[in-house]
Amino acid sequence: MNTISINGLTKKFGDFTAVDDVSFHINRGEIFGLLGPNGAGKTTTLKAITTLGKPSSGSITAFGIDVVRSPKQARKMFGYVPQAVSADGDLTGYENLLIFAKLFYVNKNERDKRINNALEYMGLSDRSHDLVKHYSGGMMRRLEIAQALVNRPKVLFLDEPSIGLDPSSKRQVWKYIKRLNEEFGMTVVITTHDMLEADELCHRIAIMNSGKIAVIDTLFLLKKSIGGDIISLSLMESALNVSIPDDLGMIIGNDDNRLLISTDNAETAIPKIIRHFEGNGIVVSSVTVNKQTLDDVFMKYAKSSLQSQSSMKDIRSVRRSFVRRGR
Ligand SMILES: Nc1ncnc2c1ncn2[C@@H]1O[C@H](COP(=O)(O)OP(=O)(O)OP(=O)(O)O)[C@@H](O)[C@H]1O
Questions:
Q1: SMART domains, per this entry (predicted)?
Q2: Is 40 in the pocket of ligand 1 (CB under 6 A)?
């Protein structure tokens, strides 16, 4: 079932069209990723959906509510974690959440319970009365997610959830995001430049480019769309005249005793292919696999140098965090 439907969304800044007639939907209970190079229109799209930016045209509905016409009602269902650090370093974790609880008009009698639940859920209870400027980057990110949870949102939006974090803090943040989705069935929408993050978290992704959606699908089908996995086999005899059943894949090259097979899923195909050759008295001496990655998908659809953009953004984000934390 659709949680959010976006139809013909367009956002112009003066003469410039940042988001150009975009239509897609987000399913209930999925983790949906918006990917794309810098300036593709991801944040602008996210801001329009979360009522933080008014569309120039188009419609957005969430659980049947018109987001553009009834932003207050829509906001009650959403939690939003922005890209830049938003927590106040000179307040404690608890105090930061209290501000959010007040902003979201959480009933006075409910506030303490909701704040403590959110802090506990994000693994921050034991540091809740420490000043946030003493938190690590990963803790700060988890606090910001906790802030968004005070609202008990149906949909959680995260703009680049793990940017600037070290690999182990990233994995921790991912673990909490997955738990929210799996334990509460919370719908999660993220924007990211991190292909590993998208691969790890997302059920479906949309790749944006120049304000348009270049492609949208499940990770599995997107990887399949660019050609699937390639299995390379070395045989103990000539590979020139061998064949395999169609359901195991397609032979795309043979060279003396080396065979190249294209298949949807190498992990499940390899044992069957080996059994097939063994059954025909052909010995397989080695197997290597070249799996299609989300990077390959991104490069095909976004046609952009991901590496350089992502490192530039990391530098910007770390600099922002330092300024914000006053170190
Ligand atoms: N308030 C604004 N005024 C003018 N132009 C804007 C404004 N906000 C965004 N833009 C432009 O709209 C385009 C899309 O920006 P947006 O931030 O949505 O891209 P993005 O895909 O989120 O990029 P990034 O990955 O760098 O965050 C960019 O060219 C940006 O410069």
A1: AAA
A2: yes
**Hey, is 81 helix, strand or coil?**
strand
Q: How far is the CA of 319 from the centre of ligand 1 (A)?
A: 19
Ligand 1 atom index nearest CA of 46: 18
Ligand 1 atom closest to the CA of 83, numbered from 1? 27
17 alpha carbon – ligand 1 mean position (Å):
10
Identity at 294, one-letter amino acid code: L
Query: Are 180 and 248 in a shared domain?
Result: no
Q: What is the pLDDT of residues 36-87, one digit of tens each?
A: 988 999 999 999 999 999 999 999 999 999 999 999 999 889 999 988 878 8
In a domain? residue 202:
yes
Indicate if 17 and 150 belong to the same structural domain: yes
- Same structural domain, 9 and 87: yes
pTM check: above 0.90: no
Taking residue 277's Cβ as centre, other Cβ atoms within 10 Å add up to 19
User: In sequence order, which ranges of the chain are alpha helices (DSSP H)?
Assistant: 42-49, 71-75, 93-103, 108-121, 137-149, 167-184, 195-201, 219-225, 266-279, 294-302, 306-325
Q: Whose CA is nearest to atom 25 of ligand 1?
A: 38
User: Is 304 within a domain?
Assistant: no
| ipTM reported for the complex, 2 dp | 0.97
CA 11 to ligand 1: nearest atom: 12
Q: Is residue 11 part of a domain?
A: yes
Same domain? For 69 and 214 the reply is: yes
Element (H, E) at 255: strand 250-255
The CATH number assigned to the domain holding 172 equals: 3.40.50.300
Range of the domain at 274: 228-290
* Total domains in the fold of the chain: 2
Taking the alpha carbons at both ends of the chain, their separation in whole angstroms is 46
Q: Is the CB of 82 under 6 A from ligand 1?
A: no
Q: Quick check: CB of 18 below 6 Å from ligand 1?
A: yes
The verdict on the CB of residue 209 being under 6 Å from ligand 1 is no
Domain containing residue 276: CATH number = 3.30.70
